[in-house]
Amino acid sequence: MRKRVIRRPARGGAIGVAGRMPFGGPAPSAGCAAEREETARLRERIVDLEASLQRYETILNDVDVQLSEMDLEGNITFVNDAALKMWRLPREELMGRHYQAYVDAETAKRFYKIFRSMYKTGRPLKNAVFDVTDKDGERRTIEKSVTPMRDAAGAITGFRTVSREITDRKRAEEKVIEHRSRLEAIFGSVKDAIITVNPDLQVIAANKSTETICGLAVDEIVGDTFIRCRPRCSGACREVLQQTLAQQKPVKEFVIECDHSLRLHQVVSVSTSPLSDPKGVFAGAVLVIRDITRLRGLERELRTRHRFQNLIGRNKTMQDIYRLLEDLASVDTTVLVSGESGTGKELVARALHYSGNRSFKPFVTVNCSALAENLLESELFGHVRGAFTGAIKDKQGRFQAADGGTLLLDEIGDISPMIQLKLLRVLQEKEVERVGDTASRKVDVRVIASTNRNLKEKVARGEFRQDLYYRLKVVEVTLPPLRERLEDLPLLVEHFRCLFNQRFEKRIEGISGEVLGLFMAYPWPGNVRELEHAMEHAFVLCHSGAVTLQHLPADIRAHADGKALRSLKGVPKSGPAARQILEVLRRTDWNKAKAARMLGIGRRTIYRKIEAFDLERERNDLQHG
Hints:
Keywords: ATP-binding, Coiled coil, DNA-binding, Nucleotide-binding, Transcription, Transcription regulation. By secondary structure, this protein is an alpha+beta fold. The chain folds into five domains: 1-62, no CATH class; 64-170, PAS domain (Beta-Lactamase), CATH 3.30.450.20; 191-298, PAS domain (Beta-Lactamase); 324-480, P-loop containing nucleotide triphosphate hydrolases (Rossmann fold); 483-624, Helicase, Ruva Protein, domain 3. The chain starts with 29 loop residues before the first helix and ends with a helix.
């Protein structure tokens, strides 16, 4: 009760009881007005609080996470709508329900231990996984976090839980684990080495075969950067992987020689493919290494190859060259390639480069006969600004441009004595010195030299340094002229036919019998290059199904005298026509119609020639011989 106060009336005013008006009504009180204002403010706060409570209840009911509270006895005192949805029960049935009603006995014991421990320690529980059973008996998996509730004095009064149903996730994880187990079983049983890396070249996984093929323990490389060059290891696998990671393109069946402590002279086929995550984002690469040592040995023994890289031919000399190139591909030995112009010396150099460990590094060619001495020196070794008139800026030489790769010195026999001396120094010391510079620079370059001259005779005449000659001629590859391997001419003709059909968008089936006879009799001074140009000339002029004499260059037609132009009819069995027909039949697997088209003759004619030359008997002799 507020204390009543008697106040004196003002001068000249009526006398009465304090707090009352002269006419008997209550006197205005400042205290009553303040109370009314306070009450109004309290009502407004209550309305605001009720609105806030409603908002929070709406938020709690809208979230998919299951929220609930329990007292110290384990009875549910609060649940949101998400919990009702999961348990498929109305709120009035779920409220007051004990946790033992929806878990099995084992889980109930686990709950009891958790709540008891939490009550004693006050420490919350984070992301524990439980199996529970709903009213229909269906098993559910939930992930639950529990925190203790406290009163104003800090005493624990109950527990607040945040739960998520993870039944579908757990089932999906179980399927993934099962699928992963199957994949790991397959992964482990594959005899090829399989290694996956991320974009930073860090090893993600490797199978057991990696230990056999690569000599590496899986536990040592997983999680580490992909192996760098080890003793006796060329590091070619790493370069192939880097190529795929940089360009996000696969590399298929790249053959290299791979040695390690467990296996020497091992030949492997390396393939890589880019990897993407489920969203299609680039995630790394997979490397597959297959040991083909035995297979390659059998191939070399049993198979007569038609080609090696871009070299084409079945001639015995060409087969020997293929085997030699295979042996030279993965070593850094300097090679001298000799042969007449047009025999394919640059193709040999490219075959050595692209079938070896340096294939992903530069391949650089210098035509030594096309440049004057001072220009050739600058081209090979580079120069600095002001080294000579016109040197307005520093220039990188071809040796530096080919660093890590291969440098082809074409027509090496034409270089001057001064260039010979400088080249010898580079080959011995693996260093180059730019024109006008005093500092040397290290280079890692494999040098292949080619020439159409007899260097041994030039050495004897004092025109070529003997020490440089033997430094270049560690291994020599001598290409035969086309006239000495005419049995390869059909293969070359077919190769150029396919090439020019594609280039000129034509459908020429082959060459006529007369053209074939002329080709076999012609001396081919320009070798394979001349044949290529002759075929290109013919394809420009030919608008029919087969190349005839009128389509050939004039200088080759001029060679067509009566002897060279004799038709296939009447040619002795040992002559080139019989050999030619037999070769084409072999290449077409004795498809006579296709062979006739390639030879430019009719089907009846080829049947007649087979009978005349008794080629069927030769076929049987070959099959049973």
